[in-house]
Amino acid sequence: TQSRSSAASDVYKRQRMNLRMKAVAAFARRHSIDRLTCPAPRATVGIVTVGKAHLDTMEALSRLGVDTVTANAPVRIYKPGLTWPLDGERLLDFARGLSHILVIEEKGAVVESQIKDLLFNRPDRPSVIGKKGFDGETMVPSAGQLRPSLLAQPLALSLIHISEPTRLGMI
């Protein structure tokens, strides 16, 4: 009888957690703190940045000469304010029309793994890189603090690999 009680309790806890997560998602959708900082409607490359990494990424892109201001910017940039759970609808809107998404976040791949999960079964899904680049090597380190000088080289290499350098304004 105790195992039945324990199983029932586990089911109840999962149901409550499910309801709570739905409530969080609904609240986040209605009162979003996510920002599309560079809409770039014609871009095929997107960058998702989180927290302080957003400022570091913007500075690194500026140092590389990549336009992040005009409507003709070569990259679309999205900064989720709520990183778990991600707003799936907003992320899918951001990803629409993109061929590649770069995820820049400090520490673990919390946002990157959610993006990959959200896009996995979609027929029009873009490639997603972050902690590891296309070659499987570390692109954005999990340990230590990110800074613009640390991000400039992996950003440049990734952007050159997936885009036309002249379109990026880097050459």
Q: Main traits of this protein?
A:
five-stranded mixed beta sheet; elongated; 171 residues; single chain; 6 helices; alpha/beta
Model description:
This protein is an alpha/beta fold. Helices cover 46% and strands 13% of the residues. A five-stranded mixed sheet has the order 1-3-2-4-5, sandwiched between helices. Helix 2 links the parallel strand 2 and strand 3. The radius of gyration is 18 Å and the shape is elongated.
Biggest sheet statistics: 5 strands, mixed
Order of strands across the main sheet: 1-3-2-4-5
User: How many β-strand runs?
Assistant: 5
SSE topology string:
HEEHEHEHEHH
Determine Rg (CA atoms, Å).
18 Å
Task: Indicate the multimeric state.
Answer: single chain
Strand content: 5-15%
User: What are the segments in which pLDDT stays under 50 over at least 5 consecutive residues?
Assistant: none
Count of separate DSSP helical elements? 6
Q: What is the distance, rounded to the nearest whole angstrom, between the alpha carbons of the first and last residues?
A: 72 Å
Helicity range of the residues? 40-55%
Structural class: alpha/beta
The general outline is: elongated
Mean pLDDT: 85
Helix/strand layout:
Elements (H helix, E strand, L loop, with lengths): L1 H29 L4 E4 L6 E5 L2 H13 L10 E5 L8 H8 L4 E5 L5 H10 L7 E3 L18 H15 L2 H4 L3
Parallel strand pairs: 2-3, 2-4, 4-5
Antiparallel strand pairs: 1-3
